[in-house]
Write a structure and sequence with these properties.
The complex is a heterodimer of chains A (115) and B (313).
Chain A lengths: L2 E4 L8 E4 L8 E6 L2 E6 L25 E3 L6 E3 L5 E3 L12 E3 L4 E4 L7
Antiparallel strand pairs in A: 1-9, 2-3, 3-4, 5-6, 6-7, 8-9
Chain B lengths: L2 E11 L2 H11 L2 E6 L3 E5 L5 E6 L15 E8 L2 H11 L6 E2 L5 E4 L5 E6 L13 E2 L2 E2 L18 E9 L2 H11 L3 E7 L2 E5 L9 E5 L6 E8 L3 H13 L4 E7 L6 E5 L6 E6 L11 E4 L2 H4 L2 E2 L17
Parallel strand pairs in B: 1-4, 5-8, 11-14, 12-19, 15-18
Antiparallel strand pairs in B: 1-5, 2-3, 3-4, 6-7, 7-8, 9-10, 11-15, 12-13, 13-14, 16-17, 16-20, 17-18
The chains are: A mainly beta (115), B alpha+beta (313).
Chain lengths: 115, 313
Amino acid sequence: MTRLCDLDDLPEGGARGFEVPGLACKVIVVRRGGRVHGWRDFCPHYKGGTPMAWKRDAYLNGAGDHIACHAHGAWFDIETGACVQGPCLGKRLIRVPLTVDEAGAVRLRQREERT
Amino acid sequence: MQIIGPDSLVFGVDDVPACHEFLTAYGLDAHDYTPEKGGHFLSLDGTGLEIRRRDDPSLPPALKTGNMLRMQVLGVVDQAAMEAVAAELGKDRQVLRLADGSLRTQDDQGFELSFRVTTRRPLDLPAEKVNAPGDFGRKPNQIGVWQDMPTKPRTLSHVVLFVPDIEPAVAFYRDRLGFRITDTFTGTGPFLRPQANADHHTHFFIRTPPYMQGCEHLAFHMGGPTELMLAGSKMIKAGYESFWGPGRHKFGSNWFWYFKSPLGCNVEFDADMDTHDDDWVPREAPMGAEAAQAFLFQHRDKWAPSGGPKPGH
């Protein structure tokens, strides 16, 4: 299971993007409400998907309560991945199941298929 | 109608300091800025962006879509042009005359518009010069590039809008404000040039569903392709994220490099756009990768042939 980071490296309310071998886009990890949520860095606005941060790891909106695509302003629910505002309304992010092991490492729960 | 184009675009954002960080890295100068209230971000001729908090009560109402564009401020050549706009738009809508002399109204889509006698300063700056056998643009001993040459955006170039009801939107700018259509992407929308500006476009409209209405991107003109490449490379090196480019568009011939931004839209560098007059015959092409650009590249880290590229780059 691919290790992404230590939970301690990700502050509550923070987000980071990780490159994962074999995956064409980064994996976004958001820590919120004591849980970690994993999403592909792949805005569904366009068929081919686009990465969403405006600078390295800048994935959240100003209030830090939504994942935002900074190309065209789409906002996504951090827990469900559903687009709640903007150009991909009705679509959602692709979840990447995560687990936090006993040593406090954030890992992909299963091997991601190649895309 | 002697409209020049956007003097300013006003945004109501949810992260003012992030916009300050991004826009100053992009090369605009902050004026009257505080993290609490926002401020102006200006290019060399004084055109630029006004960034305010989303809940700033001085802003016009927000679009229902959550898009952060709140108003376009269009510059016109003189007071007579202002009166012409007021007379034309006053026929079927409320046009407010504000204390600062500007006009305020809305287009048919609900985009807020302001008109003012332009405050842009004439620029006396050379364009990038190119040397070629048969035509040497630069004098002997004049060098073409150096690492820290200035890369300041010169003027606000254009704004691209997601427009739900495109036929009436185009009719408003063409028939009421006198914009010329320079070229059209079939099924997507037209490039528009106001009468007092020779640039291929100051506006481009993209047909979208209503929930997308807003600003798709905005762009500033650079002094040439070299400045554009350097400015974009500096952005990448500083950790900002490219959306599209560098490349060169077909319609307009402008070089482009788009960056994602905390304004909720892309912010583009452009350079070397075509200019036109009323003799131009508009072209039309289906929108697609082939029609959108003559060529496209992607940034990579510097390497030298002596050592070879780093693995994976």
